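go over this:
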Amino acid sequence: MRTFKRDSHGITPIREEHLQGRLPCMTMTAEMRTARLHLGTGVLVHPQSIKQRVSHRSMRRAARRYKRAQGSLALRLNENLLDAAPRWFEYAKNVLATDGHHVPLAFLLMPDGTGQFSTLILEDRQALYLLIKQLAARVERTGAVGLIYINEAWIARPEELTFGQRPSESPSRKEVLSLVAALRDGRFRHYFAVFSRDETSRIRFEPTAVNTEADSTPLDFLGPILQVWRKRSPQIPLDQQQ
């Protein structure tokens, strides 16, 4: 099947992979048929993510604000998202240092090399889990082959946490900027850097760390998306992941 779009110059084809031969608009996922109730408030939950339209004008504006060359995040020849992740993380650090915060951001890479940016609206931890499920449903509909997810988070040493306590509730908690890059073959890389704010609110970063351990938190975090990819692609053995 082929998908077509219409713009000011007429109809053009879109190269996009379709699961089981279905168009994305005809793929009904379990998430679409599910209603979720927030047990704390007793109301139905409707988490939201906002697709960001990237234009040449917005790219020029971002390049000026964050002092980066326009198009610096674009994939280069023979480069995948894992290769590009260090460059994306340095850009994210610059956004955080400039703006004082970094909104939760997801980037899905499509089979034809194009991408979709989405800003996630996270009111609480429940919304985070549900939005990841929504992202997984979008991966299933569109056939996305890669993901980059950027967010701020709290971390704390496990031995400093009491039973059931979250890092955000610990007095010794630290802020961290996190980026997870993942491909549909099972490979991923997790970049993160602890940061602090001085008396002038200037952000100071500790050295960047990189994690590729198969049993680490990012795999749990991306579970719904990885499940979609496992149904579609053979997995690389864990001992061969890099």
Q: What stands out?
A: Residues 81-99 form the longest helix (19 residues). The chain has one domain: 44-240. The CA atoms of residues 163 and 170 lie 11 Å apart. The chain has a mean pLDDT of 80.
